[in-house]
Amino acid sequence: MKLTRHKTQHGPRWAADDRWLADTFDLRSLLETRLADMAVFIDRRITNEPAQGPLLAPIEDTQEVWASGVTYQRSREARQAESNIGSVYDRVYAAQRPELFFKAIGWRVMGHGQPVRIRPDSAWNVPEPELTLVINKHGEIAGYTAGNDMSSRSIEGENPLYLPQAKVYNASCSLGPTIHILDAVRLDDLPIELSIERVGQPVFHGSTNTANMNRKLEELVAYLYRELSFPSGAFLLTGTGIVPPEKFTLAHGDNVIVTVGDLRLENEIGA
Fold first, then answer.
1. Which of 26, 37, 89, 126 might form a disulfide with 79, Cβ 3.0–4.6 angstroms?
2. What is the DSSP letter of 17?
3. What phi, psi does 42 have (nearest 5°)?
4. Among 247, 267, 262, 257, which Cα is nearest to 78's?
């Protein structure tokens, strides 16, 4: 089942498999529900009315987006290349405790077709395509979506302590276009692709698979929920295995396409 969030003249509204859900439906209530009861929760609120309207990011103001770092070999190599302190990333890659950091609150997240940004004070900027887990209040993986974790590599490369500035800024995160609910069985073998177009021409393409991750998804979730509660549920970007070459940086007007399984998230680099 796929959940989408749409812009309407009466405000945002959710749909399931292209049919409107009751206008009282909200993601927080769904993510307060146990995984085993979610299908019934949705079925009781679905209508026969076709959904329409522009897509919004499939997240509400009450959810947080967190992120995982150095979960793929390629990510470790890229972080070493941008920094003079490579051993830090070696140790994180092999350590029992994963790297986890706050990325965005729901109202800062951009949806499919909406612009994302690069920081004007960063000279080296890249997108990071990532499987993004949708997790309920109880720490159960309820589904997934596609995510773009925009990254200012020149800022983080100056000093690892600058990671929040390299990762957290306006329009630095996009999610969408939909949430796959109750479809978590294939998450350990999902293809991920990144394509970047400039003036209509391809300038980068890369691919990986979640099977290449160094960490189990359940392990990442367990550490995130170890000392944090998420009464409205949470989203977790699970790290990137695709990084453009060192000479590449994004430019205004570039089109970034993130594909996770059959989900395609597309965003232009705005001003």
1. 89
2. T
3. -70, -45
4. 247
